[in-house]
Specification:
This protein has 319 residues and is an alpha+beta fold. It folds into two domains: 175 residues, Immunoglobulin-like; 90 residues, Immunoglobulin-like, CATH 2.60.40. 36% of the residues lie in helices and 21% in strands. It has six helices and twelve strands. The protein has a five-stranded mixed beta sheet. Helix 1 packs antiparallel against helix 2, helix 4 crosses helix 6 and helix 5 packs across helix 6.
Amino acid sequence: MMLGPSAMSTLGAGSREAARVTHLTWFLIILATVIYAAVMAAMVAAIMRRRGSISDAPDLERKGVRPVIIGGAVIPGAILVILFIAGLGAMRAYPTPPGVAPVHFTVIGHQWWWEAVYGDGASGKSFRTANEIHVPVGRQVEITLLSADVIHSFWVPRLQGKIDVVPGDTNAIRFTVTKPGSYRGQCAEYCGMQHANMAFAIVAEEPAEFERWLVAQHQSAVTPVDSEARLGEQLVVRGTCASCHTIGGTPATGRIGPDLTHVASRAMLAAGTLRNNRATMEAWVTNAQSLKPGVLMPSLPQYTGRELLAMTTYLESLR
């Protein structure tokens, strides 16, 4: 996930749709600069003109009315028409290329994380992942947006404009990524205590690499061979974790929290809050509330230090 200063910039377009917004933004900046310069020039010219005495009555019929009409109505009206046309051009839809079906999946907003549900039309199979949404470069992507609780807002500034995710309603967003990379997204509608820490990443890959990712995500979790990881598997899939999380190919089938089948393959944990490594995984499993207060993930005081270490070892093997 991009974390640099330009991660949320609307000027670094990574899709066809965002490029329109970038072009419109630069057009507005340039136009505003020209208008500002013209107004300042007119003001300076008015100041520099030789004026009569204070007792001179202005000739409104000859000198005052025309500049007011032109400068106060005609020119602003023409500028507003130009801006309206430019805005409509940025809003128009891109047609779907003939013979190429868009990549479609569903994203569900939760407090405070994002769930992505990918379906396979050929086999009828689907899988779920969290906070790291993979898409192919060069193909139109269509995302159906749902909310599991409150109003959220799905926003990836470098790919598309923001759109609300409303409980009981269905919205959709479309874009075509033109550059491979990781694009940071953020919930843009206040949704509770951890709203600021409800981030996600759109990972854009070349089509062949995206297909390999799809195949890997359809696989069940690997069976651990290490004794410590085997202990961790027993604790995770037959303990408290299984009531909230799914791990493919195991008895863990909970749907409250993120699917953990391939959790170790993701770059971040806790919706963009933590780098995904062994240390942060152990800290999250041990006491999530200390890292992200208010989340539904409980602390696990019933487990010993050795058991928590074994659980971390198992989760870190799920790639």
